[in-house]
Amino acid sequence: MLRLRPPRADEGPALTALCLRSKASHGYDQTFMEACRKELTVDPSRPDIAVAEIDGLRVGMAEISVAGDEAELEKIFVEPACYEKGAGRMLFDWARTEAAKRGARVLTFDADPGAVAFYEKMGALIIGRSPSGSIPGRMLPRLRLRLNEAADA
After folding, report:
1. What is the mean pLDDT of residues 73-83?
2. How many Cα atoms are found within 13 Å in the side-chain-facing hemisphere of 37?
3. Which range of residues forms the domain containing residue 119?
4. Among 19, 69, 73, 129, which is disulfide-ready with 77 (CB 3.0 to 4.6 Å)?
């Protein structure tokens, strides 16, 4: 059964490894992945993280931050062997629900180009491009989801 839970204090390394495996599934080489390591490191003490499990096995995670009426989807990653099992949708739904509960009206985020179709299916729209936090000169699609419209969908 698929469920969400908060992270455990000792899960940082395991969640970071999950994020790296998920990112690497888009075909990136080892040099690229090492450049992303710092940005993909998970601090389980942060308050706005959810971990997805299927039958007790960790299969994904998401992290948001909220400032006023805007939220940022900081991370959302699913174990590659578990794509198409509902964890990504459940984590994204958690992110938008939690952001709205904290007063946010929009959820914005940068996306890996390989994940844009998923986010568009979730109702997000591309609003521009942003510089990568890990790879100098690389630009990423910037997306936005209006939370009141997401609730109506």
Report:
1. 95
2. 9
3. 2-152
4. 19
